[in-house]
Amino acid sequence: MSDGTAKAAKPAALTPDICVIGAGANGIALAIAAATFGVPVVLVERNAIGGDRGPLATQALIAIAARAQALRDAARLGLAAAEPQPNPAQIHDHIQRALSADRANHSAERLAALGITVIRSEAHFTSRSTVTVDGRPIKARRFVIATGAHAVSPAMPGLDSAPVLHEADLAGLTRLPERPIVIGDAGVALAQALRRLGCLANLVAPDGLLADRDEEAAMILRRRLLREGLDLHEGCEPLRVERSRSGLRLVLATPSGETTIEGSHLFVCGQRRPAIGSLDLDLAGIRHDASGISVDRSLRTSNRRVHAMGACAGGAAAASPDRAGDDHVGLVLRSILFRQPVKIDPASEPRVVWSRPQIAAIGLTEAEALARAGAIRVLRWPFSENAAAQAAGETDGFVKAVVDRKGRILGATIVGDNAGELIAPWCIAMRAGLGVSELAGMPLPAFARADASRRAALSFHATLTTRPALRRLIGFLRRFG
To answer: How would you class 70 by CB atoms within 10 Å of its CB: exposed for 0-12, middle for 13-18, buried for 19 or more?
Structure first.
C-alpha cells in the first residue's frame, strides 16, 4: 500500500475520570477542584477560556457609577457636591483591568500547571459514553456539561437593522451610549449605572419592575430610579424598532395605544438560551428541552454518566437563579468524587439585584408565602433605625423575613447598601435548617448594618412580652431579688 493511500492512524482515546465540557467560571472551578484531589480531568472549550465576561464588566461599570453618584450626593454629608465628568477611555481601561485580573486566574497555562488537560475545540457526543473532539474520542468515567447560556434577541420587527448590544458587549465599549434603551428589568442595574454616568437612559420593563420580587422592595428601588432621572416604562410591550435620523425609535404598546422612545442603542437583557445546540445530546441519550438539559435534583441527566450544571441545566434546576452554578459545582463534585447523595434546593439559593440600593432575597417572598403557607409572620426592621445606616446617611431599605408560627424561616428580603453581603446569615440559616431564634441570638459587631437582621429576628419574640403567664413568672422571680 502506497503512502498516498495509507490511512492515518486514529488518535488514541483519552480516558480521564472527568471530562468537563465548557470552560466558563463553573466548569473551571469544577476542573480545578477535581484536579486538586489528584483526579485526571479533561476540560473542553470551543471559545475563550473563562466564559462570558459580561457580568464582571457590568459589575465594574456599576461600581464606577456608584462613585459618580457619591460625588453628586456629597452635599448631604457636608461636602461640596460636584457633577462627575466621566472619561470613557479610562472607564474602558478600568473594566479591562478587572477582566485581565480575572482572566489570569483562568488562563490555560495555569490550568495545565494544575494537571488539567485543556482542549480548545468543539465537543460532540458520539455515544452514551464517548465525546469526540476534532476526531479524538474522550471516554471519561463521568462527563459534566457546563456550557452556560448565550444572550438572544427577541423576535421584533426592525431589530436586525438596529444597533443592539448585550451584556457581553460591555467589555469592548470604548464610548458610552448617549441614549441607551435597556429592554428587560434584568438590566435595571445596568440602566441605572448608565444614567448615573450621564447617559439619557430608558428602562423598559414589560412585566413591571421586578415583578417576581418583593413589592415593597421594588417600590423603594422605583423611587430611587425616578429620583435619579431614569426614564422608566413599566407594563409596555416592545412592538417594533424603527430607524431615525438620530439613531432609532422603539415603539411600545401601552394600555392607551402606542408610544415611542428615541434612543441611540438597544441593550437587550434577560433573554438567554442554553448553549447546548452543537453537543448532539440525542446520541448520548440525554433529554433536553427549551429550558436546557433535563436534570434531576442531583443534577444528573437521563444518561447516568453525565451531569449538567449552571445556566445550561433545565428540569429540576430550571428554577435556580442565574448564579446557582456556583453552588452546583460543590454538589456535582461531592456526587462524582465521594458518591454522596446531593440535592439542589432552589429555595435556598440567593437572588441579588445589583442596583443601588441592592435587593437580595432568598426563599419565598411575602406574597408567595401567603399563597403557599397560609399562616405566616412577617418580621421587619428598617435601616432608618440602624445606627450604621444613619451614620452613612443611607437609610432607605429594610430587612424583612417571612417565618411560620414556629419560627422556621420561609424567606428573607433585604433592600439597602450591600444587601448582597447582608443576606449571607439568612442563606446559612436556611441551608442549615436554623430557625429565627438562632439568628436572634447571633452576636454582631456594634454599628454594623447586619444588626438589622438580628433586630428583625428578635422581633419574633415581641409577642412574648404580652403573655400574662410569662409576666406572672417574671413577677414571681422578682421576689427573690
So the answer is: middle
Angle at 95 between CA 80 and CA 98, to 5 degrees: 110
Please write the tens of the pLDDT for every residue from 110-163.
999 999 999 999 999 999 999 999 999 999 999 999 999 988 888 899 998 888
What stretch of H or E contains 29? helix 25-36
**How much of the chain, in percent, has pLDDT values that exceed 90?**
75
CA distance 224 to 277: 41
Buried b (16+ CB within 10 A) or exposed e, 304-338: ebbbbbbbbbbbbbeebeebbbebbbebbbebbee
pLDDT band at 465 (very low <50, low <70, confident <90, very high): low
At residue 471 the predicted structure's pLDDT band, cuts being 50, 70 and 90, is: low
Cis peptide before 357 (omega within 30 of 0): yes
Environment class of 96 (CB within 10 Å of its CB; exposed 0-12, middle 13-18, buried 19+): middle
Please compute, for residue 228, the number of CA atoms within 13 A of its CA located in the half-sphere on the CB side: 34
Rounded Cα gap, residues 447 and 278, in angstroms: 54
Residue 148 near residue 22, CB atoms below 8 Å: yes
Q: pLDDT tens digit string along 347-397?
A: 788 999 999 999 999 999 999 998 887 789 999 999 999 999 999 999 999
CB 266 within 8 A of CB 250: yes
For residue 435, give the DSSP letter. Answer: B
Q: What's 207-261 look like in SS3?
A: CCCCCCCCHHHHHHHHHHHHHCCCEEEECCEEEEEEEECCEEEEEEEECCEEEEE
Q: DSSP class of residue 465?
A: G
Q: Does the structure show a pLDDT above 90 at 11?
A: no
Reduced to 3 states, what is the DSSP secondary structure of residue 153?
coil
CB under 8 Å, gap of 24 or more: what pairs does 314-320 form? 314/274, 314/288, 314/289, 314/290, 315/291, 316/344, 317/292, 317/344, 317/346, 318/291, 318/292, 319/346, 320/344, 320/346, 320/349
Answer for the pair 403, 460: CB distance below 8 angstroms, yes or no: yes
Cβ neighbours for 159, distance < 8 A, ≥ 6 positions apart: 153, 241, 266
Instruction: Please state whether the predicted TM-score (pTM) of the whole model is above 0.85.
Output: yes
Give the per-residue pLDDT at 1: 45
Determine how β-strand 149-151 pairs with β-strand 164-165: unpaired
Return the closest-CA partner of residue 324 out of 346, 305, 342: 346
Handedness of CA 76, 81, 85, 88 (dihedral sign): negative
Which residues share a beta bridge with 351? 361
Give the pLDDT band of residue 463 (cuts 50, 70, 90): low
Which DSSP string do the residues of 290-311 spell out, in sequence order?
A: TTEEEE-TTSB-SSTTEEE-GG
